[in-house]
Write a structure and sequence with these properties.
heterodimer, A: about 775 residues, alpha+beta, Aldehyde Oxidoreductase, domain 4, 3 domains, 7-stranded mixed β-sheet, globular, B: Uridine Diphospho-n-acetylenolpyruvylglucosamine Reductase, domain 2, Uridine Diphospho-n-acetylenolpyruvylglucosamine Reductase, domain 3, 4-stranded antiparallel β-sheet, about 30% helix, about 20% strand, binds flavin-adenine dinucleotide
């Protein structure tokens, strides 16, 4: 019987009522009396010397409050990078200055050059058009391999070149890996591109800066996944505002997918300008601006090789990846192709020897950073495409080859530094084969062929790492932040609870699922628990939401704080019940004395805490409010097996996904409906990447896919009804909820299955193509079929 | 957007007068024009809204058997009201954009704009329709003059399009994955006295008639007769969604599929 409340129940998402009735409070809904509006004049060339910016005519225009250029920010800090990677020679990465407004040079289309603050958005835009900018264009570097050639134009003149770092992982293993390749019975090699994507959250970025002259307090309202991180990065490193004088609020946020993790220039600008103009300043990104200023995702070019012995056991793996950083280092950019990618290269397999090389490269493009999955989709895609290719070359069944090489014993220490605590890859593969009706495929293929279509079946496995941690380890790896999470549980006198979590919900449904956990622990109704997030003045220092960490890390902090609450409440209850604490148990919202009918209700205990007339004041303080900070011992490792069935129209090259199956192991599940929804969303983005989405620049650095006219977003009609299962559950062994994280799995696990299926379909049509790059657009399929 | 004034005439005559002002521009559904204004790519001083002109709306059968569609008729209305008399055209209208676009966008706006990837121009050209304006009638063959170029004069309004109704017709479209406009689409219209084939989305010169295919299909109306025919890839648009060669190939595929659809 499914439960109807608490952990395991598919409680309806309470936040949806306000989202669906237009009652949400998004950043753009925030308007402060007297606010002015900023319009950014953005570069329309990819690379050039900024000779002059003449604002005279613009400054005289109607409504203009003040115009800012790069020189106004010379004394202001650089937009910081939150992760420092050390390269294979032990040298730290090259880290360029990232100005709030371009100074001296422009380095990508969309980089802000000047900012006009005016009474209305239209006046700001009018004046921005009147600014005269003199730029001497320089040759742009767009292609990563070109960018690292000797003599290539430099994105940053003060760096030695365009190579940010050359990372080897694990460098000491390189010799052994190469030796294993020498001895291999078979080597499979694959070169591929992981296409650049634009995150495209439904809500574009917005920032409102406010400054109170009388107190010196700043407030920034912003579309962020982690307001405390913004407060720290912007306050300490850019503007020099101490944290107690800076409040950052991220209210309802309409999707982030990673791109709202990072600290952006526009946030620093509105905060700075609010003081400089003595007026609140608001910026609302247009969709066009979002395309050229939100950090992009993916963009790897990889060569990967697998060595196998004569029995088809994987003996070694090596990879060689170019990772695009764009023109500047976005907040977590350096970590994505390294610690979030290299550490996952073992996948679900017990390959004993692995070496990963990543060259991070500066180009004249928008900065690239984490996007749903961040590093793990790149790892999964190359590995799962490679294994499929190996199976095909060896003439063995791709599922069999995978099963033969699965990790089966846990904990499992990979050769790439991480230890999988738990998992059962055979179970998810068994489940997948059952769901996907592999036996019935031949008949379905015949049906498709009768219509003149080709049909293909593709599978892949994935392993990912969520809840990046622990802090002391990530510190050694270069993180300039801790990766714990916080929660304060405040119990009111009448028994209701407010949980202030450092996690941030921007669509994930935390207000529902987090309440389920706390309600279950106490045995009260979910409606008695309120979740507060997204405001540095209301919530203890938290690290926010990304990397599917909210329940595993934020939820664990909340559990720890609730445990403290229960322990104290038990003391109060035992006093009221005149019983020994050890005899008092909490069940269904009441404390009872074991073996008796004596009990005291939750509400009576909480009332006593705040009206402590009959209370053990000599032992404990009044009140019922506890805080916990939880720093996890390890990542969590969700895993699964996915299958995709496509139909391919050989005449047009059009591919349609007919069926899609996902068998995931997320450990324990708090709200199955929300988990299913998270998988659905991830699949849409994964299938979108595989078939449609592509951020493209021309050789001069012009963004070709700069709007929805050219950037293909998946729509409901492009996607099948998914068949999603999460009944295989190996609970995480090191967090109190046994949960693993489900937010990114769909995006991580689906692209290889789609591409594997397309290649299978092509083979069935007599065209044995060893690889096709994403997005597998009709044009590309047609070209491959006719090559 | 830049600032502009709005006029809301009730008659074509008033609209023509309003358009006589400097920098005035007509607006119908605004589905093309409003995004252009928002991007500040156009700067009209006066927008003359045609959406309140009743005499420009509706679908009716003319005395000569032609289907006459007012220039201000929305795609949704055409999809619903042309279905019985001219299902090929109704099917085209039903698949333009999304419901919001179909409820606002008009046939007059589409034909006036003559986007090289627009749907209606293919039907207008393939049926040899007549584009009616406030002061003349223009044959389709004279009307379309290349990408975004038409025979319309400054201030001239498309008030109606008169379609000869073919015995059978079909519009086959392969969409561009992002915009979902046609990457290549073909309208095949079969009349008692011959076949006309118009192609949109493909050519650097906008919508065009594929006369070789027309001749072949006029001889034997089945898809095999056009199998060997090709259009010149060098004349086709080449962009990030498809090369000229791919588009040229699709012209053949879409034509054959349209013919097969008509033959059932
Ligand atoms: C999301 C989206 C998807 C779309 N998909 C498709 C598609 O798949 N296929 C397709 O064909 N189209 C598509 N369109 C375009 C749509 O069909 C437009 O409605 C059409 O192109 C223009 O019609 P309108 O009435 O909106 O014209 P408007 O936008 O009002 O005007 C367009 C131009 O024509 C002029 N004009 C308007 N009416 C007249 C008139 N009666 N006489 C003279 N000049 C006039 C205007 O001055 C302007 O220059 C799409 C549009 C959008 C926004």
């Amino acid at each position: 019987m499914p439960k109807d409340s608490g952990i395991g129940a598919s409680s309806k998402r309470r936040e949806d009522i306000r989202f669906l009735t237009g009652d949400g409070n998004y950043t753009d809904d925030i308007n402060i009396h007297g606010q002015a509006y900023v319009h950014f004049l953005r570069s329309d060339v990819a690379h050039g010397t900024l000779n002059s910016v003449n604002t005279d005519a613009a400054a005289a225009m109607d409504g203009v409050v003040k115009i800012f250029t790069g020189t106004d920010f010379e004394a202001v800090g650089s937009i910081p990078c939150g992760w420092q990677v050390t390269d294979k020679h032990g040298e730290v990465m090259q880290e360029p200055r990232h100005p709030v407004l371009a100074h001296g040079k422009v380095r990508h289309v969309g980089e802000p050059i000047a900012a006009v603050v005016a009474d209305t958005p239209e006046q700001a835009r009018d004046a921005a058009e009147a600014i005269e900018v003199d730029i001497s264009e320089l040759p742009a570097v767009i292609d990563m391999k070109e960018a690292v050639r000797d003599g290539a134009p430099k994105v940053h003149d003060d760096l030695t070149g365009n190579l940010c770092y050359d990372w080897g992982f694990v460098e000491e293993n390189k010799g052994a890996v190469d030796a294993a390749f020498e001895k291999a019975a078979h080597v499979t090699t694959l070169e591929l591109v992981n296409n650049r994507l634009v995150a495209n959250p439904m809500e574009p970025r917005v920032a409102v800066g406010d400054f109170a002259r009388s107190t010196g307090d700043y407030t920034l309202y912003t579309t962020s996944q982690n307001p405390h991180v913004i407060r720290l990065l912007m306050g300490a490193f850019v503007l020099g505002i101490p944290e107690h004088k800076l409040r950052v609020v991220a209210p309802d946020v309409g999707g982030g997918f990673g791109t709202k993790i990072f600290h952006y220039q526009e946030e620093a600008f509105v905060t700075f300008a609010a003081k400089a103009c003595n007026r609140p300043v608001k910026w609302t990104s247009s969709r066009s601006e979002a395309f050229m200023s939100d950090a992009h995702g993916r963009d790897h070019v990889t060569k990967i090789e697998l060595a196998l012995d004569a029995d088809n056991n994987f003996t070694a793996l090596r990879t060689d990846t170019y990772a695009n950083m764009g023109a500047y280092l976005s907040t977590f950019a350096p970590s994505v192709p390294t610690w979030l990618h290299g550490t996952l290269m073992a996948g679900n397999y017990k390959t004993p020897l692995i070496y990963v090389n990543v060259k991070a490269v500066f180009t004249n493009t928008v900065p690239v950073d984490a996007y749903r999955g961040a590093g793990r989709p790149e790892a999964t895609y190359q590995l799962e495409r490679l294994v499929d290719k190996a199976a095909h070359e060896l003439g063995v069944d791709p599922i069999k080859l995978r099963r033969q090489n699965f990790v089966t014993e846990f904990p499992y220490a990979t050769p790439v530094a991480v230890e999988y605590d738990t998992g059962d890859y055979i179970a998810t593969m068994d489940k997948l084969e059952e769901m996907a009706d592999v036996a019935g495929f031949a008949a379905r293929r015949q049906e498709s062929e009768a219509k003149g279509r080709l049909r293909g079946f593709g599978v892949n496995c994935y392993i990912e790492a969520c809840g990046i941690a622990p802090s002391n380890l990530v510190g050694q790896l270069g993180a300039r932040a801790g990766l714990y999470e916080s929660a304060t549980v405040r119990v009111n006198a009448t028994g209701g609870l407010v949980v202030m979590t450092g996690s941030h919900s921007h669509g994930q449904g935390h207000e529902t699922s987090f309440a389920q956990v706390v309600a279950e622990m106490i045995g009260i109704d979910e409606s008695m628990v309120e979740i507060v997030h997204g405001d540095t003045d209301r919530v203890p220092m938290g690290m926010g939401t990304y990397g599917s960490r909210s329940l595993a890390v934020g939820g664990s902090a909340m559990v720890r704080a609730t445990e403290k609450i229960i322990a104290k409440a038990r003391k109060i209850a035992s006093h009221l019940l005149e019983a020994s604490e050890t005899d008092v148990e909490l069940k269904d919202g009441a404390f009872t004395v074991a073996g008796t009918d004596k009990s005291v209700a939750w509400g009576d205990v909480t009332l006593a805490a705040y009206v402590p007339h009959n209370y053990p004041l000599e032992e404990i303080e009044p009140g019922l409010e506890e805080t916990a900070f939880y720093d996890p011992a390890n990542f969590t490792y969700p895993s699964g097996a996915y299958a995709c069935e496509v139909e391919l129209d050989p005449e047009t090259g059009q591919v349609t996904v007919e069926r899609f199956f996902a068998a995931d192991d997320f450990g324990n599940i708090v709200n199955p409906m929300i988990v299913t929804g998270q998988v659905h969303g991830g699949l849409a983005q994964g299938i979108g990447q595989a078939l449609m989405e592509n951020c493209t620049y021309d050789a001069d650095g012009q963004l070709l896919s700069a709007s929805y006219m050219d950037y293909a977003m998946p729509r409901a009609s492009d996607l099948p009804f998914y068949d999603v299962d999460h009944s295989c559950q190996t609970p995480c062994t090191h967090n109190p909820l046994g949960v693993k994280g489900c937010g990114e799995a769909g995006a991580i696990g689906s692209p290889p299955a789609v591409v594997n299926a397309v290649l299978d379909a092509m083979r069935s049509g007599g065209k044995d193509v060893s690889h096709i790059d994403m997005p597998v657009s009709p044009h590309r399929v047609w070209e491959a079929m006719n090559s | 957007m830049y600032n502009f004034d709005v006029e809301r005439p009730k008659t074509v005559a008033d609209a023509v007068n309003a358009l006589a002002t400097d920098e005035a521009q007509p607006m119908s559904g605004g589905q093309t024009l409003i995004p252009t204004l928002k991007a500040r790519l156009a700067m009209p001083s006066v927008l003359v809204s045609l959406s309140g002109i009743d005499e420009m709306k509706g679908v009716r059968k003319g005395d000569d058997g032609r289907l006459c569609i007012g220039g201000g008729t929305t795609h949704a209305t055409v999809a619903a009201e042309a279905a019985a008399d001219f299902p090929g055209l109704a099917g085209l209208a039903a698949r333009i954009g999304d419901p919001a676009v179909r409820n606002r966008g008009t046939i007059g706006g589409s034909v006036a704009n003559n986007d090289p990837s627009a749907c209606y121009p293919a039907a207008v050209l393939a049926t040899g329709a007549t584009v009616v304006t406030n002061n003349r009638e223009i044959a389709a063959d004279d009307y379309f003059q290349g990408m975004f170029a038409t025979a319309l004069e400054e201030g001239e309004i498309v008030t109606e399009v008169k379609f000869p109704i073919p015995q059978a017709s079909h519009y086959e479209k392969h969409i561009q994955p992002a915009s979902r406009f046609p990457l290549v689409a073909v309208f095949v219209a079969k009349f008692a006295d011959g076949v006309r084939v118009a192609v949109t989305g493909a050519s650097e010169n906008g919508v065009f008639r594929w006369t070789e295919a027309e001749a072949a299909l006029g001889g034997a109306f089945n898809s095999d007769t056009v199998k060997g025919l090709t259009v010149d890839a060098a004349d086709m648009i080449s962009d990030l969604h498809g090369s000229g060669a791919y588009r040229a190939h699709l012209v053949g595929v879409m034509t054959r599929r349209a013919v097969d659809a008509i033959n059932g």
